[in-house]
Write a structure and sequence with these properties.
35% of the residues lie in helices and 15% in strands. By secondary structure, it is of the alpha/beta class.
Length: 368
């Protein structure tokens, strides 16, 4: 097998090796089918079983109540930025409350403004998007159409520990980058959406979990592919869905159930991994400077700076020599970013931590 490196990409991200091996094994012909997963019809009994198991596994892992539908859509979280307001803001004559803690929340709010009034009830710009709000900082409108927030911002590396309390207003969450990383009380949400390419599978499928009563609010005469109610009625099969991507989500959820056990175990593992890096940052005497404030730190995306841009470039180059790839921070923030999603093994994070300690020792004289 070709040597594999540690891939710290923010997405598409690492997949569990067991998942890749299973997909490789069955790529030419699915067991008892005689056709590749890339060839089977989305109307076949074989795919019915695949999409059915995928939903069942998600319901088990997240303990999704019966009054929620699970949809498998396309267009990534970015399309959801538009679908949510098209379905729930358009024509309501009510505002939507948006909590913006980073780049993706900002983008979501911008798209919603095309459909109606948007109120930025909290914006982290004044703190350079380094934290999430405290509960007493949120002044939510009890008459809002919905409240939207991003649970984890991949670029800035900030994450909500608990979801905001929206009262009786539907809570909508972009959970793309910490979906399946920890337990979630689904019943607190009206709608959850997540691009799969962080923790759940490859790029190409977006998982939407939506409460039944919200489907009743969808207006008539929406564009077909943007209509949650129609997608739910057709069980995500109105058009050809991303068959291979859904199949891979099935394999990932199998791995979570059989190898990890449950999301409580997954969360403990993710906390252990992130602690290795945050301890290295905190104990560096300022050589490494974390972007996120300690009480808002992401378990998925650890972001930090070095004393100079030159040292950051040197860090990235020398890291690659240790098989540590995709550590460059987003162009809007700079610095270093280590994305340590579910599939990143603890051993990979330990290698990165050890390299960080060594790099600091070798370059301590260049601290400004």
């Amino acid at each position: 097998m070709e040597k594999r490196v540690y891939n710290f990409s923010p997405g598409p991200a690492m997949l569990p090796l067991e998942v890749l091996e299973a997909a490789q094994h069955d790529l030419l012909a699915l067991p008892s089918v005689g056709m590749s997963i890339l060839e089977i019809s989305h109307r076949s009994k074989s795919f019915d079983q695949i999409i059915g198991e995928t939903e069942t596994n998600l319901r088990q892992l997240l303990q999704i109540p019966n009054n929620y539908r699970v949809l498998f859509l396309q267009g990534g979280a970015t399309l959801q930025f538009s679908m949510v307001p098209i379905n729930f803001l358009r024509g309501t004559n009510r505002p939507a409350d948006y909590i913006t803690t980073g780049t993706w929340g900002i983008k979501a709010a911008k798209e919603a403004q095309r459909e109606g009034e948007v109120c930025l009830v909290w914006d982290g710009k004044s703190d350079n998007y380094s934290r999430v709000p405290q509960p007493n900082e949120l002044k939510l409108n009890p008459e809002a159409a919905y409240v939207h927030f991003t649970s984890n911002e991949t670029i800035e590396g900030v994450e909500f520990r608990t979801s905001p309390d929206s009262g009786n207003v539907p809570l909508v969450c972009d959970m793309s980058s910490d979906f399946l990383a920890r337990p979630v009380r689904v019943e607190r949400y009206g709608l959850i959406y997540a691009g799969a390419q962080k923790n759940a599978g490859p790029a190409g499928v977006t998982i939407v979990i939506i409460r039944d009563d919200l489907l009743e609010r969808v207006p008539d005469n929406l564009h077909t592919m943007l209509d949650y109610r129609l997608q739910a009625k057709n069980k995500s099969l109105y058009n050809t869905p991303p068959v291979f991507a859904i199949y891979t989500v099935m394999l990932v959820t199998r791995w979570l159930i059989k190898k990890i056990g449950d999301l409580q175990n997954m969360a403990a593992r993710n906390q252990q991994k992130s602690k290795l890096l945050y301890d290295a940052i905190d104990q560096s005497n300022g050589f490494y400077r974390g972007h996120a404030q300690p009480d808002s730190r992401s378990l998925m995306n650890v972001t930090w700076r070095l004393p100079t841009a030159e040292l950051e470039q040197k860090f990235i180059k020398e890291a690659q020599a240790r098989d540590l790839y995709e550590l460059k921070g987003h162009r809007s923030v700079g610095g270093i970013r280590a994305s340590i999603y579910n599939a990143m093994p603890t051993s990979g994070v330990q290698v990165l931590r050890d390299f960080m300690l060594e790099f600091q020792t070798n370059n301590a004289d260049q601290k400004s």
